[in-house]
Amino acid sequence: MIISHKYRFIFLKTLKTAGTSVELSLCRYCGPEDIISALTEEDEAIRREWGGKPQHHDRPYKLTEFGRQGLRELWRTRRWPRHAVYWNHIPAKQIKRLIDPEIWNHYYKFCFVRNPWDRAISTYYWEIYHNKVDDFEAILTPKKLQENWNIYTIQNKIAVDFVGKFESLATDLQQVCDRIGLEWDGWLPKAKGQVRGDRRPYQAVLTPEQAAIVAQYAAPEIEQFGYRFPQ
Q: How far apart are CA 85 and CA 64, in angstroms?
């Protein structure tokens, strides 16, 4: 997630849409006052290669936010922990609460979506890689299949100015950069590219029953962006 005062944009980071690659690329152009959320340690290593880091995304905990055990730990370590105010996949409704209305209303807001059937498979391999959960049915739930819709909408209405597609990522990102006046060099790192082992198209992986579940729960995105199975 990025809020750039320098270029007056807000990038909302959806899941399994190459959002980390987009963030790593765009944050190279950010100014010292811009807000940049933290990534995983693996992705922060990529960012550190050119001197980048998260900034202005957290704040120190208040004393009243500690429980008894937390206060003991604070006394023991003498290290004051910080609380993430802006996080990786923070939804639009939360950003809107946190920032000045003038910023929300006038900055260019954008995100990316992905074919829901393909994204379901990508999510499955993410769960295997990170959580050791090898159960495809476990990700065929409203929570998993609607999580991106809930990031860039508020009360089921799209809350951003532009929604690009994973399938045309570079072209759509270039369109965004032209709009905000950013001279983008076209660099998109292959973040998390090692997670998905099976590169077969989603039509060859999903059963008709699984495809129907995705169509049911991801219906808002499918209807809004014209996705079809097969595509």
A: 16
Q: Which helix (H) or strand (E) holds 9?
A: strand 9-11
Q: What is the pLDDT of residues 31-86, one digit of tens each?
A: 999 999 999 888 999 999 988 999 999 876 666 666 777 667 666 776 656 667 99
Instruction: Tell me the whole-structure pTM to 2 decimals.
Output: 0.87
Counted domains in the chain = 1
What is d(CA 166, CA 177) in angstroms, rounded to the nearest whole number?
16
68 falls within a domain: yes
CA distance 184 to 25: 9
Give domain status of residue 53, yes or no. Answer: yes
Q: How many Cβ atoms sit within 10 Å of the Cβ of residue 177?
A: 19
Distance CA 154, CA 16 (A): 20
Q: Could you check whether the bond before residue 142 is cis, i.e. omega within 30 degrees of 0?
A: no
